[in-house]
Write the structure tokens for this entry.
Amino acid sequence: MRTPWHLWLTGVAALLWNAGGAFDYYMMKTSNAAYQAQLSPAQRAFYDDYPFWVNVAWALGVWGAVAGAILLLLRSRFAIHAFAISLAGMAGNLVWGYFVSPTPMSEVMGEAGLFPVLFTFAIALVGIALLVYAMRMAQRGVLR
């Protein structure tokens, strides 16, 4: 089966979108001072205090999405698995940030307004959309 044009468009857009998340993850994990200067002390402490399992969830969310985008461009059915792993990681991160953390993410990010909260959920919606797209492409025989 020929590769539909929208697979290339979706795959490249997904890779660029998720590269932003990978950049953020890398800058936070390497404690890049210039990058982290944009955070308030409370926001910085929130990220620094992540328990081990939340760090694992964050890594799975970010790198699963990058792998999913690459696998989508390679027309591999394993893109579905990578996007699913990414969503599981995102879910763990969201559960911690909004429901389990001693200081909820919405409170920590509150000084920045509603944008960070909305952006967090936009990331999850894009992740769901990419998983659904990959599943449909596999059903149509585009992914092997």
